[in-house]
Write a structure and sequence with these properties.
68% of the residues lie in helices and 0% in strands. It is an all-alpha fold. The N and C termini lie far apart (45 Å). This is 19140_t:CDS:1.
Length: 226
């Protein structure tokens, strides 16, 4: 890493997610590479790097997910109130309350890369909605949250495979969120402007007509005021 800081050519090589994945697995092994990736911080780890690590055999364990939540989970509301009582600046307080720790939901994204690996190993079978829900519920039980920004991130991650696995994702997410399909899709559409994703989601709106599109536009406008 020090060489990457001092040499422009090595710096370009070091920015490659595949190179990072190879290095971290070689240095720490498949069982511990994700832990050390997080330890190195946001300058090292990214969704692309996590993707590459999983593709190359990195292991996401339950223990790792638990430790990640402990160190990068949601902020403690009592601690926030204590800081407020000791005259912390209002702008700083708002940042504490609204900012999400950078690694907070990485296990959810990585879990989907394991469920739907980019390079399917021999004998791999596409998981059904039940299996996806069970994995999500395990992570939710650990304290992670399936927010709509994470849902959209996963749609982006599998943008090229939506025709293959998109329906499974929709059914899994809407059941976890306890939303009707129509409400779930409208909410997702309000969170992204990616044309490939919006076109895909529109396919599953009931009676995908001009009237329904107008209804969607009205819902988006109302959500912006919430």
């Amino acid at each position: 890493m020090n060489l990457a800081l001092s040499c422009k050519r090595w710096s370009l090589v070091w920015k490659d997610s595949q190179v990072k994945a190879e290095w971290i697995i070689f240095k720490y092994g498949r069982a511990h590479c994700l832990f050390h990736s997080i330890r190195l911080g946001p300058k090292f780890i990214s969704v692309e790097v996590a993707h590459a690590i999983i593709t190359k055999g990195g292991i996401l364990s339950r223990y790792f997910a638990q430790r990640l939540l402990i160190h990068y989970g949601e902020y403690d509301q009592k601690l926030i109130e204590l800081k407020a009582s000791h005259n912390i600046g209002q702008s700083d307080l708002e940042k504490i309350q609204t900012n999400t720790p950078w690694a907070n939901n990485l296990p959810i994204t990585v879990s989907f890369l394991i469920l739907f690996p980019p390079a399917q190993p021999h004998g791999w079978t596409k998981p059904e909605v039940k299996a996806v829900k069970e994995r999500l519920l395990e992570l939710i039980d650990l304290g992670f949250k399936l927010n709509y920004d994470i849902i959209i991130e996963i749609f982006h991650l599998f943008e090229r495979r939506l025709d293959e696995i998109g329906k499974i994702l929709i059914d899994s997410f809407k059941e976890i969120k306890q939303e009707t399909q129509e409400n779930f899709l409208h909410r997702c559409l309000s969170e992204t402007q990616n044309p490939n994703i919006t076109n895909f989601l529109h396919k599953y709106l009931q009676n995908n007509s001009e009237l329904n599109v107008k209804k969607h536009q009205i819902i988006i406008k109302s959500l912006r005021y919430l």
